[in-house]
Hints:
- The protein is about 35% helix and about 25% strand.
- It has helices spanning about 40-50, 85-90, 100-105, 170-180, 195-205, 215-225, 230-250, 265-270, 275-280, 290, 305-315, and strands at about 5-10, 15-20, 25, 30-35, 60-65, 65-70, 70-75, 80, 95-100, 115-120, 130-135, 140-150, 150-155, 260, 295-300.
- It starts with a strand and ends with a helix.
Amino acid sequence: xxxxxxxxxxxxxxxxxxxxxxxxxxxxxxxxxxxxxxxxxxxxxxxxxxxxxxxxxxxxxxxxxxxxxxxxxxxxxxxxxxxxxxxxxxxxxxxxxxxxxxxxxxxxxxxxxxxxxxxxxxxxxxxxxxxxxxxxxxxxxxxxxxxxxxxxxxxxxxxxxxxxxxxxxxxxxxxxxxxxxxxxxxxxxxxxxxxxxxxxxxxxxxxxxxxxxxxxxxxxxxxxxxxxxxxxxxxxxxxxxxxxxxxxxxxxxxxxxxxxxxxxxxxxxxxxxxxxxxxxxxxxxxxxxxxxxxxxxxxxxxxxxxxxxxxxxxxxxx
Length: 318
């Protein structure tokens, strides 16, 4: 009989919960909960379980924050998540807690072609070649993905908090402004929804303007071409994204492909070619030709973290 599991994707604002049949998420069971309406994750899971007639065999929570030994702390919300608490609420015998990028990595082998948009094709590679997922949304992170025999290994990472690299005077002014306004920036302080807002706010500061916009408004202006400052912010954002992606590619050598995911990445997907993502990605001097090997894709599946959690549990239980 296929495994019945509970899977949850816990972000800073919302939590999505679903049941699975084997490695497949039952989309008819997906429910979304506003975190602000609940004191902690167990309360969310109790609300979900109240409407479910089954006790899951297993449970997995993918969360936006660092995890160690089955316990994690959300980066953008003061919740702590523990394997023991999840087991107590769900009754599941097998429980896992993953960083959300780990869950995205476990999903890669289960994506359908219609949920993957290719930015650059790169070179073919073996099925066991390393891959890399980079999440750009409320926060930013990256995780390498390895296949060892029939198991998937996705080591945890907090790549979004490495120091923001700069290469020219424009980027140095941006870094100095973010440092003075918010403190020393990591990659996430530019490559995220709030980071995009900060790039736009810095350009307003440079221009002596006060017409601040939120990320959705800035992206809407980019889509319609109605605001040159929004276009400039998007171009700088993509330049830094391309360069950071190239840096991570050199660290992990993901010949099997690089997969951008998250809400901000999906919003930028249609603009990456026009805004010269590839030029920034390949901007590595004598290693530019080497970088042409790596395919780059955008994951359009908003439920990939749930699918990855289900796939991980299936591998755990065997």
